[in-house]
Design a protein that fits this description.
5-stranded mixed β-sheet
Length: 228
């Protein structure tokens, strides 16, 4: 899911920097007002530690448990390479979206694979900002040429046809990321089980031309450490 609100937050890192980011994580509950969870993610490229801040919309038990689940997953898995925004809201009443603040719901409480999938999906939407914007838009144009009759929501696409082209890029990156985190077979099973964007995920899983377009524009993840 993707909602944009103009120019927001920090610029996305280029994909070339993804391989250099490593996870050196220490989980701590923050005492700062409004911050319910914080994760300091160290990088090996000399950058200042990247602080992941999680706020709860209603401070419900489900939101607290989802926060703890997410902090554990980011600490256990090599997710730091895909953290393009540090601000996270967990809101049990909202549909997940990336902008203006990355927001997750509580529906995947207890389902680590689906929470990971949703989280990195929304992180990858931030590649449509900053230095990767032009390449992102170029890939969308190629998808429009490849699928001139792509559907909107009623046909299994996204909110509208433009969003469908956007999600062909993001959902393929989601599959790539999950494959590194969980292994390809498990990742494909997770993607196949998703009950929205059916037309998009079918193309991501079955049409190699989607990956070819993403590779052409630099949206392919480098070789990463084996999943833990």
């Amino acid at each position: 899911m993707h909602m944009r609100g103009g120019s927001v937050g920090r610029s996305a890192h280029g994909l070339s920097s993804l391989g250099s980011a490593v996870l050196g994580a220490v989980v701590a509950l923050a005492a700062a007002v409004g911050v319910e969870g914080a994760l300091d993610v160290g990088r090996d490229d000399g950058n200042v530690a990247f602080a992941l801040e999680i706020r709860l919309a209603h401070d419900s038990e489900a939101e607290r448990q989802t926060r703890d689940q997410l902090l554990r997953l980011v600490a256990e898995r090599d997710v730091a390479r895909w953290l393009y925004t540090r601000e996270i809201v967990i809101d049990e009443t909202e549909i997940p979206h990336s902008h203006p603040v990355l927001t997750l719901h509580t529906r995947h409480l207890g389902d680590d694979a689906m929470l990971l999938s949703t989280f990195i999906h929304e992180q990858f939407h931030w590649l449509e900002d900053g230095e990767t914007l032009s390449a992102f838009r170029a890939a969308m144009r190629d998808f429009a040429e490849l699928y001139p009759d792509a559907p909107g929501r009623e046909g299994g696409g996204a909110r509208d046809v433009e969003s469908t082209y956007r999600h062909l890029l993001v959902c393929d990156l989601e599959l790539q990321g999950l494959s590194h985190l969980l292994g390809e077979e498990h990742a494909r099973a997770v993607i196949a089980s998703i009950t929205h964007y059916e037309w998009i995920y079918e193309r991501v899983l079955d049409d190699p031309r989607v990956r070819e377009i993403n590779e052409r524009h630099g949206f392919v993840l480098p070789e990463l450490p084996a999943p833990r």
